[in-house]
UniProtKB/TrEMBL annotation:
Residues 9-393 form the Catalase core domain. Keywords: Heme, Hydrogen peroxide, Iron, Metal-binding, Oxidoreductase, Peroxidase. Belongs to the catalase family. Heme binds at Y339. Residues 1-25 have a biased composition (Polar residues). It comes from Scopulibacillus darangshiensis. This is Catalase.
Amino acid sequence: MSKSNENLTTSWGAPVGDNQNSMTAGSRGPTLIQDVHLLEKLAHFNRERVPERVVHAKGGGAHGYFEVTNDLTKYTKAKFLSEVGKQTPLFVRFSTVAGELGSADTVRDPRGFSVKFYTEDGNYDLVGNNTPVFFIRDAIKFPDFIHTQKRNPKTHLKNPNAVWDFWSLSPESLHQVTTLMSDRGIPATFRHMHGYGSHTFKWTNADGDGVWIKYHFKTEQGVKNLATDVADRLASENPDYHIEDLYNAIEKGDYPSWKLCVQIMPLEDADTYRFDPFDVTKVWSQKDYPLIEVGRMVLNKNPENYFAEVEQAAFSPGTLVPGIDVSPDKMLQGRLFAYHDAHRYRVGANHQMLPINRPKVEVNNYQRDGQMRFDSNGGGSAYYEPNSLGGPAEAPESKQAAYSVSGVAESVAYDSEDHYTQAGDLYRLLSKEEKMRLVENIVGAMKPVESDDIKLRQIGHFYKADPEYGKRVAEGLGLPIPQEV
Ligand code: HEM
């Protein structure tokens, strides 16, 4: 049908006679309302924007593939992991968290690391970050936390008071705050950072046996970060620095790649491990659970169209395939609701039918209708279940693996209140120079906080993680050093 020099048409396909001059009464006008091409053009333009993502609004994406390099079928029946050498197409989106769609790439912020695997059993989304832990560990705190990262509703300005007020009153954030303020808080590019699933997930094999797992994407470009002053300069000189870097690298054939590894924990260890392994503010020791290679991810194709692919992409931690289930992690459980709900609002009820989101396998179900249903809507096939019409049937072998739960139903925190050991371990692991930059970054970020109470409360947390850590931040801020904890 399509020809290279075909006519310009209206959206209803009729040839357009004039796209430069509105229809007017004489050359002076006024403009005639009967110029429906003009009306359509202006009206469509008004509707060009969809809401930006409420978090992770700014990002870049690319297509690629995943190749299995290690046989882990004794742990998972996920078909895309069934054979060494097997390749699965995928789409990745990297992002910053707090800024708007037009914000600068090189700010100090976690980076989103979302992967959509188009597997033969449907899509599998891994929606993680470039950090292994998170600021909070209960979904009920997420909207409040994000309010502090966004603009003050009164002034429309960023608000360091809110940021540090919230963190100092939420000590579970300390591990992630330490990571964020360290060199890794500003990756040099999207290509030079690791990725993490962060949460604990569950793998189940063909016999129904399960294990708990954590995902690690290891960059094959090596980790590189930006010094704060360089990042600040780039933020004004080239706010799209990271998106541009990814695009250019792929255009010139310098395809970025990551090795995917997992940590594997036997199910029963979850009851006896020294902290709750579902708490997303903690990492599992790699001495206890070493990294095991799974495969390799390569990004080798840029999107043809940013809006169609990157902006309309809808990732959700609830987009799972048989062999991969969730864990009781309270953040993850909340996310299972939040993402598909956001997609229905942001992109629409039928967002899963858009080319970027559509699985590469046939979708067979009894869902019908909804705004923008643009396929055949099931045609004349069975539209309810159970039916005796031979409609699509359940696959019982794909049921989520069962696991037992017990407990008293109440609003209650995780058992452990130790927010300090792992944050302190991370501090002690840093070199002298890295510690110096960490403290500098924290002091720089906390200086604009107006309230000494907030600063002192936060210093108390650094002190509890490691007395030297607390003392150095206190010194930098010219505040008293906490004497005791
Ligand atoms: C994006 C909610 C925690 C990583 C989003 C979006 C929402 C959301 C509503 C926008 C989705 C869209 O419009 O497409 C939440 C809630 C959380 C939570 C309620 C806690 C309960 C996390 C955590 C991580 C994470 C712990 C990482 C481990 C991401 C990423 C994106 C995102 C990478 C961008 C996805 C993309 O590239 O399209 N989140 N989030 N979030 N979130 Fe979360």
